[in-house]
Amino acid sequence: MTRNPNMREAILSAAELLFSTNGFNAVSIRDIALEAGANPGSITYHFKSKDGLLLEIYKRHCGPMNKRRMELLVAARRVRDVQDRLEAIVRAYVQPAFSSSSDLAGGGARFTRLRAVMSAEGNAVVGRIIAEIFDDTTNAFIEAIEESLPHLPRTTIVWRSQFLLGALYYTLVSPERVTRLSRGEADGADMAEAIEQLVASTVASLQASDVDHLDTASRRAKPTQPPAKSVAGKRKENSTS
Amino acid sequence: MTRNPNMREAILSAAELLFSTNGFNAVSIRDIALEAGANPGSITYHFKSKDGLLLEIYKRHCGPMNKRRMELLVAARRVRDVQDRLEAIVRAYVQPAFSSSSDLAGGGARFTRLRAVMSAEGNAVVGRIIAEIFDDTTNAFIEAIEESLPHLPRTTIVWRSQFLLGALYYTLVSPERVTRLSRGEADGADMAEAIEQLVASTVASLQASDVDHLDTASRRAKPTQPPAKSVAGKRKENSTS
DNA sequence: TGATATTTTGTACAAACGTACAAAACTCGA
DNA sequence: TCGAGTTTTGTACGTTTGTACAAAATATCA
């Protein structure tokens, strides 16, 4: 059998691929070994345990990705125009999640899909990592958005950042849904297009005025309402704060 | 027929809970039996296999949820004002995903979280069901949105519906992230608040003009731009259509 | 009630799981 | 070329897995 010069890398790559498409528990160490062309025992040798392997995948990607995010964020904050700045901020958050600056091509998207799957499975191993590693970066983005949209409550920005991350995750998890529902007119696996659509959608969402709870309640009570000119963010803010 | 329907129901409920929080493969039949206070063998008796149990959960919820969605959609389409109609359409899609009209309280949210997890795990059993059962309903919503926003290409609506579903899923999967990032000011598990935030965000996203690729390219080339008044949906439409 | 149908239980089994570990096969400076 | 260090291999272990099945328990209805 041909020996792989860097078996450790092959194992990491195979594990990334299989975990990100099938979840953690559905993939056995033997599956990974087969995909990587390695012996099951050598996985134990390199990473000690299955959890250790998953942990190593995270360690490999988190640093470079969030570093790139922060670099792009610093540049984005310098953009003069508010609209452009907001778009640049969102793009700085989204883009590194699709294509990491690190070694492998498309590795960024694969790792982000892995994060989505682990998040859905409620994986205990990565639970702490997410809060420890990602929250700092996320907070920096929230603050940047706060600065550009000072009228918007922080809680609303948090909600919309949640929606952004969910949209990001799901786009990588189920791209075929976009292709199917668009009847082939769009390609859900087209990452460049996904980024553009996601950025545009998120910027518009962020620019909308805050949810007004009292107003919303009254609007549901009497659905007929003086006609609005169908411009988003039109509703006046008279929130509780 | 069923002499003691309680046990069957208890198994279904326990499986729903465990699957939706831990994934499919991480939960064993013995785990479910323990949670339901049943014997492992009785699960095989009622549902034949583990896959059969998962399938039965879907059969139980899909019908009522999508029926409710269609009822609300019909009502939403009758709303006169465009802004209000759009909001009603989005709400008709979102609301039944959080609280089903069926028996158990909060069962809707639990089932939607289950769908999110199965989607992330790429579960083969439910793969076909989703396309078969959900696409009809989703298409009805896309058409309703198309009707309210005739200037928007269908592909863009599909992308934004993808983002909506992803946001919906992730909100149910990781509500604690909202609580954490908002430093306790918001409660990610507050479903009513989540719905309001999600609806407002999505309506604003839908009302944004289409992504213009050429324009976007030029805007990135020369970042200085006539200042926008930071009102969502303000940008003029000069799309390709 | 007794006969029959339905549900629950306990146990068993083959397969797959994560992991450990010794032997074998490599690598590479001296 | 040699030998120490590193990596890979093969195998074996104790568990846990999904499922099957017969016996026991329970419910239904003449």
Architecture of one domain in chain A in CATH?
Orthogonal Bundle
- Give the CA-CA distance, first to last residue of chain A: 69 Å
Can you give the mean pLDDT of chain A? 87
Structural class of chain A: mainly alpha
Number of helices of chain A: 11
Look at the structure and give the CATH class of one domain in chain A: Mainly Alpha
Q: Please state the CA-atom Rg of chain A, rounded to the nearest Å.
A: 21 Å
Shape descriptor of chain A? globular
Uncertain ranges of chain A = 216-241
- The counted number of beta strands of chain A is 0
Oligomer: homodimer
Fold-level CATH name of one domain in chain A:
Tetracycline Repressor, domain 2
Give helix % range of chain A. Answer: over 70%
Largest interface: A-B, 81 and 79 residues
Write a compact overview of the structure shown.
The structure is a homodimer of 241-residue chains. Chain A has 241 residues and is an all-alpha fold. Helices cover 71% and strands 0% of the residues of chain A.
Describe the structure.
2 copies of one chain form a homodimer. In chain A, 71% of the residues lie in helices and 0% in strands. With 241 residues, the first copy, chain A, is an all-alpha fold. Chain A has a domain at 63-210: Tetracycline Repressor, domain 2, CATH 1.10.357.10. In chain A, helix 1 crosses helix 2, helix 4 runs antiparallel to helix 5 and helix 6 (107-121) crosses helix 8 (154-173). At the A-B interface, helix 5, helix 6, helix 7, helix 8 and helix 9 of A face helix 5, helix 6, helix 7, helix 8 and helix 9 of B. The structure holds a DNA duplex (30 and 30 nucleotides).
